[in-house]
Amino acid sequence: MAQKEFSVVGKRITRIDAYERVTGQAQYTGDIQLAGMLYARLLRSPHPHARVVSIDTSKAEKLAGVKAVIHHQNAQVPWASGGHTHRRYIFNNPVRFVGDAVAAVAATDRHIAEEALGLIEVKYEKLPHVLDPNEALKPGAPKISTDGNLSVGKGNFSAPIAEQWGDLEKGFKEADRIFEDTYISKHVNNAQLEPRASVAKWEGGKLTVWASTQGVSNARTDIAKDLGLPLSKVRVICKYMGAGFGNKNQAQDYDLMAAVLAKVTGQPVKVEFTREDDFIGMHGRWASEQHYKIGVKRDGTITAVELDAVTNVGAYRKQSGNLSGTDFYQIPNFKKVVKPVHTNTVVGANYRAPAYPQSVFGFASFLDQIAHEMGINPLEMFLKNRVRLYANKTPFTSNFLEECAVEGAKKVGWKEKWHKAGAAAGPKKHGIGMALGGYPFRPGLGAAAIRVNPDGTAHVLVGVTDIGTGAKTTMAIIAAEALGIPLNQIQLTNGDTDVTPYSVGESGSRTTPFTGPAVIAAAEDVRKLIFNVAAPQLKAKAEDLDLRDGKVFVKSNPSQSLPLGRAVARSGELIGRATTNPTFKGLAGKSFAAHFAEVEVDSRTGHVKITRYVAVHDSGTIINRLAAESQIKGGVVQGIGMALTEELLIDRFTAIPLNPSYRDAKVPTHLEVPEIEVVFIEHPDPYGPFGGKVVGEPPITPAVATVANAIFNATGKRIKELPITPDKILRAAQV
Amino acid sequence: MDEEIKGKGVSRRDFLKGLGGGAIGTAVVSTGLLDTGKAEAYPTEATGTRRGKSVINLKVNGRGYRLEVEHRATLAELLRDQLGFTGTKIGCNRGECGACTVILNGRNIYSCSQLAVWMDGKEILTIEGLVKGEKLDPVQEAFIEHDGPQCGFCTSGQIMSGKALLLRQPNPTEAQVRRALSGNLCRCGNYNREVAAVLAAAKAR
Ligand code: FES
Ligand code: FES
Questions:
Q1: Cβ contact A428:A601 at 8 Å
Q2: For A241, nearest residue in chain B (alpha carbons)
Q3: pLDDT tens column, A678-687
Q4: Is A243 a pocket residue for ligand 2 (Cβ < 6 Å)?
Q5: Please, what is the angle between helix B174-181 and helix B191-204, to 10°?
Q6: Which domains does chain A have, with CATH numbers?
Q7: N or C, where is chain A less crowded by C-beta within 10 Å?
């Protein structure tokens, strides 16, 4: 698509629901109160691996106000999307990690429900457990799945995850030097601010769930499947949600628990998680141990890469457990084996760009290290080895990674500021670092409907949720642009499976590429209807008409026009709709990024201060500059947390998570975050809606490695294990 | 350890004690009441038999209320569940995230960490109370202009902390804004935007 003049796309647009969000009117799941609604709380396992021998709920049930207690004996409901290798239920026996759900209580208020948890008597028979993925792979290790601890499932969930091209042996032979090393990343919780909640209500045989979900359509599909209901009998609603970053996709066990409790009590039920529930009961980013062997030519060109890794997916395999950080480099000979492993720990699954930031950390740190050892400037090293063809064979729909790196280097002043690692004088060491990143841009199934009212205003219906990305606003902008009417004439309804069309779910940066084209197609559909009714009024042929700025006009004579409201005044309502499923033929899609950071490392305390951050992104055309910049800033902040402080600590003997709270998990606050400078390299992608690629996931991908490389440049000591805390920096300085 | 292997029942209370975590609500409740000299009104551990209640008078967003509240209810629960001011959010319920921030007699506080019974005679301002008729507060306006909310779950709290700052310091520096908002987490990482919004609101007045 040639770059054309847009009327709304690309501007700085405030969110269409900003008013609701700044006045407290936006209703999140936890805000819902229904007449006669009960409150539910969960009891969780204190043991990492144990058989539930018996559950005595009699005392809890006698507590005034308690209406129901459910557990594995009276509510054995499968939770299919909770695990793909061994069957997972909403309550499992044996329990497989500290925090695995054991029972849920519904009562007339939350304090009573909480009290009742203390009255449930559970007898456990402890089973041997294993926490370390390498230990878990050894013969004789306690078995978490009956098939063993290598997480082998079907299709997408096969194991080990293997990928290979070229001739590895030849590649290493061609190398002038071969490097080998291991990098380690830890489990980090998504820690979205909205704690989990779900409200369920039955009317006759129909179930309505107000979920805090990233995707109403897939939540409905999952709930219907797990409860054995037809899709028409399940309605999932999510209008506002307080983020999830990948841990609120699909249906969740607590959605099912709410539904079961509502069924048994005959009353609506709200399940609420505590913050601790969220940290220990759900999931975070899978930890990894990445062993690399990299061959390079004298000039730094990569000839071969071998990656051998284990990832810790915890007790259940919810998602891939893959590592994809090598995606941004041109590797002629490649072999990757990633083993997703079960352990008796909380699940490791999707968190913003699931397979990327931890593995970009490993690979880009190592590349930076190799550059150092070979006396090559890291900027040159990254530029030289940047990816040109996906998997060394497939061209990209568009690729401006080089421009990102060159522009970013210019902006940050790389030439003037870069110095040899550890060369800065004084106790406060300056450092500068960079890394490359991005995220797949994939096309897929989307649907949308647009109703044009007889006054010329329009109503857009899309299934998307808005988890904070501004997806509602993006869809409204696309609709306004495609229809040719002002943005303020558009009303948008989202996130209700009884009302809105299918949406893939807001995860994997799929909203714009999946639903965007459907909105455009629905707009084209309704424009045809508009032109049909306008043609006789304008005494012209329908195909000769156009619509812009809310006016229908004859293309050859724009002064011959009608306001849209007049043109459709007698049409009742015109409805356009579309289901689209575009594909890229023989091409790969990706958004790209190059990040740069400057740090100041206090060599006496090990404290790291990020003094400057520049994020340069190729995301094609930017649909909404304001929200897109915010997305980039947010991704970087999460990356900074992962780089410097965040890690879920698990006691080695008891397997109990030690820091399941915001303060102890150390998520970044206002005080740790610098101004993040965002630059977009804007070239429309020929396959993206209005030329746009993806924005949501890319920014977190290079951020961890960028900060790590800056710290190395400051100290001259490579920290190979996340997070890079002051104690590690001080210890490294001593050797 | 050994006896546990043979299957000793572990209640959630023991479990939580072990974790040193989730029983915080109870802990806050009991020590808090000791401070007001009413410890006997509330058991140190919730037993289910003594769910005491008291009547309090308070003002919320300029309106007076006379209400019966449970002793163990927090101000956040009172606002959200009893009065329907759900713009005040609960993100952690233990004084760590700031989603529940409201203004109490001119200062920003965590409403999850205050007991409802302590509010007798107090004056509370919540996000809902910032709107005057149709008119938004300058801080709210600035949050719209500067894309303050991503998911929006922290937004009420950020705005209330910003508002409280501007009440006592109408012309803050950037560093002062950051410090004033530092008790308000934003996992969406929208810190730059929130600071810019508060600074812009200060200029707008
Ligand atoms: S909910 Fe009060 S501080 Fe988090
Ligand atoms: S906007 Fe989501 S937590 Fe701040």
A1: yes
A2: B151
A3: 999 999 999 9
A4: yes
A5: 120
A6: 32-127+194-242+248-281 (3.90.1170.50), 351-437+590-733 (3.30.365.10), 443-580 (3.30.365.10)
A7: C
